[in-house]
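To whoever is on call:

I kicked off a structure prediction for a single chain this morning and the downstream step that reads the tokens threw a length-mismatch warning. I double-checked the sequence; it's 130 residues and nothing unusual in it as far as I can see. Pasting both halves so you can look.
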Amino acid sequence: MCCLKYKRKEAIVEMIFLKAFVVGGLICALGQFILDFFKLTPAHITCGFVVTGAALDVFGLYDRLIEFAGAGAQLPIMSFGHSVIHGAMEKSEQLGFIGIGMGMFDLTAVGITAAILFAFIIALVFKPKG
């Protein structure tokens, strides 16, 4: 009986990885499809995905996607838009209109700070063009 419980847990873990892989792969494939067929720049696609993640969070759909796919939905850039809007909505409920501006950076401050810090370090190590 003990081995049967272990096998079930192992199957559940494997299914979590499979869901994350499929959903993350589909999001990335969608970005590649848009890049190839609509001739947009990577910046356009990045902005579009951030706005899409924010819009899905406004309607409560991105949280459901995260519950289903886990890291497959949390790692792509769409999750950044979700985090910005999610923090803004939480703080606006507590503090009103001023909370929107304060809440935007609650969940994303570490990521933004890391991006700025690493960009600075890379610029010191390598010679930037231009």
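Update from on-call: the warning came from a stale cache, not from the record. Cleared it. Sanity check on the structure: The chain has a mean pLDDT of 84.
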